[in-house]
């Protein structure tokens, strides 16, 4: 079986509650099935870990990297996700903005149109202010 995995399965595995669902989630992640992990699910998991569980950025990065390391998990765009995690931690951008910057880098576009001045902290791309 190949299937996309939802955020709630990841959170149950990571948080361990409710216990019965956490066990099911961990068994599923440990299976030999192929579980596709989309970028939007990663973004939602990061948001939940930050806002609901008050997990700090370095820990979130480590946790997401541990999920990516599961043999059953295939990230849709792993290099961009890993670079976005680096930007998220080192430049303190929201993950979605970090992902946007990582996408700009990986495509060679190297420009992001945004009002968000935090993007200026990443020197590999240029922020363009909307006109």
Automatic annotation (TrEMBL):
One of its GO terms (molecular function) is metal ion binding. InterPro entries: PIN-like_dom_sf, PIN_dom, PINc/VapC_TA, VapC_family. PANTHER family: RIBONUCLEASE VAPC13 (PTHR38826:SF5). The keyword Protease does not apply. It comes from freshwater metagenome. Gene3D superfamilies: 5'-nuclease (3.40.50.1010). Residues 1-121 form the PIN domain. SUPFAM superfamilies: PIN domain-like. This is Unannotated protein.
């Amino acid at each position: 079986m190949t299937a996309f995995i939802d955020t709630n399965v990841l959170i149950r595995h990571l948080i361990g509650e409710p216990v019965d669902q956490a066990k099911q989630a961990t068994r599923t992640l440990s299976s030999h099935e192929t579980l596709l992990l989309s970028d939007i699910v990663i973004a939602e998991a990061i948001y939940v870990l930050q806002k609901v569980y008050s997990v700090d950025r370095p820990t979130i990065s480590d946790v997401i990297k541990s999920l990516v390391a599961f043999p059953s998990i295939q990230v849709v765009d792993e290099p961009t996700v890993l670079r976005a995690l680096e930007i998220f931690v080192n430049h303190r951008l929201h993950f979605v903005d970090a992902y946007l910057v990582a996408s700009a880098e990986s495509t060679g576009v190297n420009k992001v149109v945004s009002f968000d001045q935090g993007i200026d902290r990443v020197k590999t791309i240029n922020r363009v202010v909307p006109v």
